[in-house]
Amino acid sequence: SQQGEEDPQALSIQEGENATMNCSYKTSINNLQWYRQNSGRGLVHLILIRSNEREKHSGRLRVTLDTSKKSSSLLITASRAADTASYFCATDGEGQNFVFGPGTRLSVLP
Amino acid sequence: DAGVIQSPRHEVTEMGQEVTLRCKPISGHDYLFWYRQTMMRGLELLIYFNNNVPIDDSGMPEDRFSAKMPNASFSTLKIQPSEPRDSAVYFCATSPSADTQYFGPGTRLTVL
Q1: What is the mean pLDDT of chain B?
Q2: Which of A2, A41, A45 lies closest to B101 in CB terms?
């Protein structure tokens, strides 16, 4: 079964709005990462958060991690059309290496 | 650095044929991963290497799949014989430290 599950499966917003995606997982982790994939391309690493961290920022990205709820969220602020892509969480931890969720498809409309 | 290089970018073959996918990692990256991506199953880790040694091949679907890393600059994923259900995009990714991964552009495989 999937370790990481993103929610929602698809999200459509207007340019300038914020986008929030969530990831839930099942077992203990060492770290959790978020990746972006543009159509037909390889994945690009966005941000890594370790199990002892609760929040991390990188530019317009904000990631939170709640290990008690086994969940993470990715917030993209002031979205742009270029943010249109699929976003994946990936977990690494107990008994499971580098497991990716099914992804959230984000569409940012101009 | 040119990033992770994969070849070919597209491969169309007939069922039963042998398929070899190639990956050149980023210089200095000690970890190399092979993934398969399909609409039905998403992104699946097939195998990963550390310093050219296979560490976890539990994701390799069956004996028809094999992967090698003869040196730090090259890895192959071979499917023999290929089947239509092997059609997917295969990604190679490398990492200096087993967390942040750098993905190649992928090889789109179609088995007829």
Answers
A1: 95
A2: A45
